[in-house]
Amino acid sequence: MRRRLGQPEPAADLAQDAFMPPQLSTIAQGSLVNHRQGRDLEAVHLEALAVQPHAFHPSVEKRAATLKLPLAFDRRLQGLAELPLLAFLLAHAPEYGWV
C-alpha cells in the first residue's frame, strides 16, 4: 500500500481503517455479553435476597463487590486453555462443594 500511495501516513491510515471495524465489533460483542451476564447474575442475586430477612441483606457496596467478583473470575478463566481450566476446576471443586 505504501508503494501505491507513495506515502506511509495514508497507507497506515487505510490499514487502520480496514482493521478497526472488526476490532470494535469484537469489543462491542464482548461488552454486550458481559452486560447480559451481569444482568442475569444480579437477577439471581436479588431473588436470593428476597427470601432472606432484610436484616441479613448486605450493604449496597458489598452487593456491588459480590456481583463483580464472579464476572471477573469468569473472564480470567476464559483465557485458560481447556486442560489447565479443567485442572483448576477439579483442584478447587471440593473447596466449593462442587463434588
Walk me through what this model shows.
With 99 residues, the protein is mostly helical. It has two domains: 57 residues; 41 residues, no CATH class. The longest helix is centred in the N-terminal third of the chain and has 43 residues. The protein is elongated.
Compressed to H and E, one letter per element, the order equals HHHH
Radius of gyration: 22 Å
Uncertain residue segments = none
Major sheet summary line = none
- Report the helical percentage: over 70%
State the helix count: 4
- Our count of domains comes out at 2
Number of strands: 0
N- to C-terminal distance: 58 Å
Quaternary form: single chain
Judging from the principal axes of the Cα atoms, what is the shape? elongated
User: Mean pLDDT score, rounded?
Assistant: 78
